[in-house]
């Protein structure tokens, strides 16, 4: 009976594995590591691409668990678009599992979106100045998609890669990108206007996610509460931070949706500051359904918080 | 997609092979959570290796992890012999909590990359490589051979019956816990803590419930583990769920089905329980 069950199960999985084939005329199967890159690929590719993000929004990049169907789609992808730097420690293993049939890092089917972006070496002042070796991202801060200007070089690279894959669609990709950049420019004007009155404002962030965003809009991240993810600050460090926030007049604390709610509340309460949750990834909030909507949401929330905290 | 599941399935069968056997010992000794404690101590070793400047993938880091796990294993062996007036599960729990907390304190001091430990500690069965499977197969064949060679004292110590006597107990216990630490450290790197715990306890539990002799229990445990591996893999592929977590849940579901079957007499109750 056991062997029969096994045979039936294997037959079932074989049927399921067959799946729909990608014909020559169908959309290009593309895999991205994050929902943000998925949104940007879709902005350029339109209906000529079928994009899947391997990581869901807001998941800790060190805890991504790839699923069997995703591995199969990674192998079949005509293009892999990734954040690069040290943001996807799980990707190397997934690619090794997929083997020679899949994209290879640095190969023709791999697009590292960080190329062409001007990176910030994260030199945010640390909570604990005395630490000999503060936590640093080895290759620069990887959250570069949170500067909307960086969508220009990223989509340029995506457009070039898509055109290489499907030269017949060259004009369509050009048009799509141009329309996206027009909407982006309009958005930037809108966001700059909303945050212009708060230029020079000092913020404290829970994690080191926002340096690109802050630099674009003329804001300063004065300190980071949890420099090492998952390691809460010591009582002394917390006390020093609260003192620092009071002395410097920092009134707004920026938290990610996954930040420890208890710690956020504690820092906000003790410093008299106001906590605001900003969404670092497309799809991380119902109001952040695409790349531009994510900035609309974040700018509105931040502008409101800075206005209320004055 | 089937070819992508071939290596993970092979790895699951290898895990079943060694863990169903060690699980019988663990159940008989009543040290259910010993593997969680050892995995946590191994993680502490990895963290310290990082602090000492060794990359996590290096051999040096693995030796750190193994040394720490074997150290804790020896501690468990000693506390059993001493017959301290506290249950061994208490010591295991304390070792787990303190080593987990120590890891947090050490990570705080470590340079960049410390959070990668979580990824390394919780391996992913789906992305197992051919080299991983070959290394596991070789290592566990050796461990199995040692246990076969010394089966009389090792089985006697776990399952009672014959007294092996005096100071030798410490040596045999050290061999048992030492080999156990080696297996757990290696398995967790490939399959993650949850999956390794499930392979250790559930097939052995099925074996103990249904079988009388150690051999019968082992055969039942192996069949049960293989069956659940197949079902878990297929469910993971069909429903596109994370493979490790799906297998762990499959263990729970199948165990529940068997339990309800016994309860309502749908499955013949084994003689031992009548």
Structural commentary:
The complex is a heterodimer of chains A (310) and B (274). With 310 residues, chain A is of the alpha/beta class. Helix content of chain A is 44%, strand content 11%. A 4-stranded parallel beta sheet of chain A has the order 2-1-3-4, with helices on both faces. In chain A, strands 6-5-7-8 form a 4-stranded parallel beta sheet, sandwiched between helices. In chain A, helix 6 (170-195) packs parallel to helix 10 (291-308). In chain A, 44% of the residues are buried. Chain B has 274 residues and is an all-alpha fold. Chain B has helices at residues 2-29, 34-51, 59-82, 88-109, 116-121, 130-149, 151-159, 168-191, 193-210, 214-239, 243-263. Chain B is globular and about 55 Å long. Chain B contains 11 helices and no strands. In chain B, helix 2 packs parallel to helix 4 and helix 9 runs parallel beside helix 11 (243-263). Helix content of chain B is 79%, strand content 0%. Classes of the chains: A alpha/beta (310), B mainly alpha (274). Chains A and B meet through helix 1, helix 3 and helix 4 of A and helix 1, helix 4, helix 5, helix 10 and helix 11 of B.
Question: What can be said about this structure in brief?
Answer:
The complex is a heterodimer of chains A (310) and B (274). Chain A is of the alpha/beta class.
- Sheet/helix structural class of chain B: mainly alpha
Query: How big a fraction of the residues of chain B is strand?
Result: under 5%
Q: SSE string of chain B, helix = H, strand = E?
A: HHHHHHHHHHH
Category from helices, strands and their pairing of chain A: alpha/beta
**Mean of pLDDT of chain B:** 83
Biggest sheet descriptor of chain A? 4 strands, parallel
Output the helix-strand order of chain A.
Answer: HEHEHEHEHHEHEHEHEH
CATH class of chain B equals Mainly Alpha
Which assembly state applies to the chains in this document? heterodimer
Q: Looking at this structure, what is the CATH superfamily of chain B?
A: ABC transporter involved in vitamin B12 uptake, BtuC
């Amino acid at each position: 009976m056991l062997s029969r069950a096994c045979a039936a199960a294997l037959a079932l999985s074989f049927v399921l594995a067959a799946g729909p084939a990608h014909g020559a005329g169908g959309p290009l199967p593309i895999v991205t590591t994050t929902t943000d890159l998925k949104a940007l690929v879709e902005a350029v590719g339109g209906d000529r691409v079928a994009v899947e993000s391997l990581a869901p929004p807001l998941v800790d990049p060190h805890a991504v668990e790839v699923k069997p169907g995703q591995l199969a789609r990674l192998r079949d992808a005509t293009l892999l678009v990734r954040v690069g730097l040290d943001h996807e420690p799980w990707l190397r293993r997934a690619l090794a599992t997929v083997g020679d049939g899949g994209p290879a890092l640095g190969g023709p089917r791999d697009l590292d979106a960080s190329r062409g972006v001007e990176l910030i070496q994260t030199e945010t002042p640390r909570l604990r100045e005395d630490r000999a070796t503060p936590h640093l991202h080895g290759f620069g801060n990887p959250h570069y998609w949170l500067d909307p200007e960086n969508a220009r070089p990223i989509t340029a690279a995506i457009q070039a890669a898509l055109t290489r894959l499907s030269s017949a669609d060259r004009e369509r990709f050009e048009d799509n990108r141009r329309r996206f950049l027009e909407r982006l420019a309009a958005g930037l004007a809108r966001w700059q206007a909303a945050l212009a009155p708060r230029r020079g404002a000092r913020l404290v962030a829970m994690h080191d996610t926002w340096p690109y965003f802050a630099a674009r809009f003329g804001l300063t991240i004065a300190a980071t509460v949890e420099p090492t993810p998952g390691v809460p600050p010591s009582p002394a460090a917390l006390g020093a931070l609260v003192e620092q926030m009071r002395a410097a007049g920092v009134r707004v604390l920026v938290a990610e949706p996954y930040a420890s709610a208890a710690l956020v509340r504690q820092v906000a309460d003790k410093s008299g500051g106001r906590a605001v949750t900003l969404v670092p990834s497309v799809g991380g909030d119902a109001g952040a359904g695409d790349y531009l909507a994510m900035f609309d949401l974040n700018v509105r929330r931040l502008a409101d918080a800075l206005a209320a905290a004055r | 997609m089937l070819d992508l599941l071939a290596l993970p399935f092979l790895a699951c069968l290898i895990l079943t092979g060694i863990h169903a056997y060690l699980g019988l010992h663990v159940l008989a000794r009543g040290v259910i959570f010993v593997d969680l404690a050892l995995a946590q101590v191994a993680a502490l070793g990895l963290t310290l290796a990082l602090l000492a400047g060794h990359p996590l993938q290096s051999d040096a880091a693995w030796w750190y992890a193994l040394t720490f796990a074997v150290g804790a294993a020896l501690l468990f062996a000693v506390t059993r012999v001493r017959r301290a007036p506290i249950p061994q599960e208490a010591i295991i729990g304390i070792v787990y909590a303190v080593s987990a907390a120590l890891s947090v304190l050490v990570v705080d001091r470590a340079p960049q990359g410390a959070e990668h430990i979580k990824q390394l500690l919780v391996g992913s069965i789906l992305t197992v490589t051919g080299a991983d499977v070959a290394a596991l197969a070789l290592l566990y064949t050796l461990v199995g051979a040692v246990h076969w060679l010394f089966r009389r004292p090792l089985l006697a110590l776990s399952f009672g019956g014959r007294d092996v006597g005096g100071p030798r107990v410490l040596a045999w216990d050290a061999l048992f816990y030492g080999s156990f630490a080696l297996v757990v450290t290696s398995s967790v790197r490939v399959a993650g803590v949850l999956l390794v715990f499930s392979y250790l306890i559930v097939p052995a539990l099925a074996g103990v419930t249904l079988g009388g002799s150690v051999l019968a229990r082992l055969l039942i445990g192996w069949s049960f583990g293989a069956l659940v591996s197949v079902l878990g893999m297929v469910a993971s592929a069909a429903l596109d769920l994370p493979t490790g977590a799906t297998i762990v849940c499959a263990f729970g579901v199948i165990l529940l089905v068997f339990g309800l079957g016994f309860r309502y007499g749908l499955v013949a109750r084994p003689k031992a329980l009548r």
